[in-house]
Amino acid sequence: MNSEPSEEPEQRHEPEAAGRPVGRRVLLGTLGLGALGVVTAPALQRGLEGFLGGVAGKDPTGLTGLLPNGGGFRYYSVAASVPHRTAADYRLTLDGLVDHPRGYTLAELRALPQTRLVRDVQCVTGWRVPGTPFEGVRLSHLLDAAGVRPSARALRFTCFDGTYTESLTLDQARRPDVLVALRMRDEDIGHDHGGPVRLYVAPMYFYKSAKWLSGITVTDRVRPGYWEERGYDVDAWVGRSNGRSDEPTS
After folding, report:
1. Which residue in 18, 34, 49, 204 has a CA-CA distance of 20 to 30 Å to 42?
2. Mean pLDDT of the residues in the chain
3. pLDDT at 44
4. What are the transmembrane regions (predicted)?
5. 112-119: average pLDDT
């Protein structure tokens, strides 16, 4: 699924058929640091996650996502590489069945009313990160500003990794716990966690919270996303989908 805790529980990495082998020293060192994350104090957790995120970006085997990480985020990507976006070159487009399509810069998104949510993050692969703060603009606010047309039924999300996509129904997208997120764990969302802007769908499995968000298109029907085309449930309520019985996150 999608990243995190793209980290994260969301995206799972599909190994390339002819990926470069990971050096023995790198692999052993990574395994040692992964095991260390299980027994060290929580203060070291973010540093370990950052290390694993950096290694995962150069790991064509997908082994990094299997390492122990002390209850933190796992790092996955479905693209061989992901370009970085800064405040200077980031744009989020909102188009499709709306009266006022437009693009947002990062500064414009930051200037809008912000909502803070603290929820557990649950990956469909089984790991959970409790009490994770996210902050951003309610997706419903952007939809209201765009003027959604009566024929609209759903949304399609695209990402600047060039590969990942996601979907929500219009009713799901209008929930107050669905954000276009700019901050995570009380800091700006970094690249490894899907920044500078990602989707956050609090009550659903983390693959719905698409990283590296670049486009929102309002559509007349649901178009299944990347992992949904590969067997995951389109409606991904935590504990009520994908054959899992996890405790709800909200």
Report:
1. 204
2. 81
3. 47
4. none
5. 98
CA 160 to chain centre: 12
Buried b (16+ CB within 10 A) or exposed e, 35-57: eebeeeeeeebeebbebbbebbb
Calpha distance 232→225 (Å, rounded) = 9
Residue type, 39: V
Angle at 87 between CA 82 and CA 93, to 5 degrees: 75
Strand spans (E) along the chain: 92-96, 102-104, 115-122, 128-138, 154-159, 165-169, 178-184, 187-188, 198-201, 213-219
Contact 15, 219 (CB under 8 A): no
Q: Tokens 């649901």 belong to which residue?
A: 222
Residue 143 CA to residue 99 CA, distance in Å, equals 10
Q: Are strands 178-184 and 198-201 parallel, antiparallel or unpaired?
A: antiparallel
Count of beta carbons in the 10 Å neighbourhood of residue 140: 16
Helix, strand or coil, per DSSP, at residue 152:
coil
pTM of the model: 0.76
What is the bridge-based pairing of β-strands 213-219 and 154-159? antiparallel
Position 145 scores a pLDDT of 98
